[in-house]
Amino acid sequence: MLKINQPIVSVIIPVYNRFELAKEAVASVLGQTYRDLELIIVDDGSIDMTSLLPTYYNDDLRVKYIKIKHSGMPGFVRNQGVDIAQGKYIAFLDSDDLWVSSKLEKQIKYFEKNPSCKIVHTRENWIRNGKTISQSGFNHKRFGNMFSDALEKCIIGPSTVIIEKKLYKELEGFRDDLEIAEDYELWLRLCDSNSIGYLDEPLITKRAGHGDQLSEKYGQIEIFRIRGLQNLVEQRYFSLENQKLAEQELVKKCRIYAAGCRKRNKTTEAELHESIAARYGK
Is the distance from CB of 166 to CB of 84 less than 8 angstroms? Predict the structure, then answer.
């Protein structure tokens, strides 16, 4: 029976009705070369066989399982796991993603070599229907001051991240009322005043195209990014320089989105976002 005293890394897997995929995700965590971890599976009220997951790992006391009332909010589910986490660092793994076995070990070594760093992420390998998706067009900055790049879209994959729990708590974690783009919103708050560490290796595999992903449900997610960004802009959350950049990006997003609404004869929605753009545009 494998047990630990005080874990260094707390791994959070949120899951909803993905028994088979989650079982593989869990295996990729327990197969890590870095062993000083705890794994917290947070079940968002699944009605499939997900509740049976813990029975597969009875001999590994690193595994914890909690079931909550279904929320449908990924940020809320992750935050429930963080609330009971014991580690110095928090790592997230979506239930349909997989880790390379050396992921945690390499990230912990990065922290040891860069003691001022509080978060490090990695590259991703994207698979859709068994085929690798090229990321050659992703030219955004991946380390250091990433704020201006982070405004455009989500450029940090949640499953790639290890972050100090203390910093995560200071940021108050993911927003728990955004169904999509909760990661985009958190990384904006993070990148406003933190330098980001990065390993230029694809240490996770993202499996897309299996049908139950929120991005598949809505087709496009820009409206969710607008909601997250607008709230932060209205709060004047960012530093002075970053606030100006955020307002400019909000104007750009709203104008593009409003134009799309006009084409689809969604006049009321178009006028709403045109008014937001006018409020912050020059």
Answer: no
What is residue 2's DSSP assignment? Answer: B
The single-letter DSSP state of residue 134 is P
Flag whether pLDDT at 215 surpasses 90: no
Position 210 scores a pLDDT of 54
Is residue 214 pLDDT above 80, yes or no? no
Upper half-sphere CA count for residue 180 (Cβ side, 13 Å):
15
| 32 Cα distance to chain centroid | 20
Q: What is the mean pLDDT of the chain?
A: 91
Residue 55 CA to residue 35 CA, distance in Å, equals 20
Rounded-to-integer distance, Cα 232 and Cα 24, Å: 36
CATH 3.10.290.10 fits 9-211, yes or no: no
Backbone φ, ψ for residue 42 (5° rounding): -110, 110
How is the chain split into domains, by residue range?
9-211, 222-280
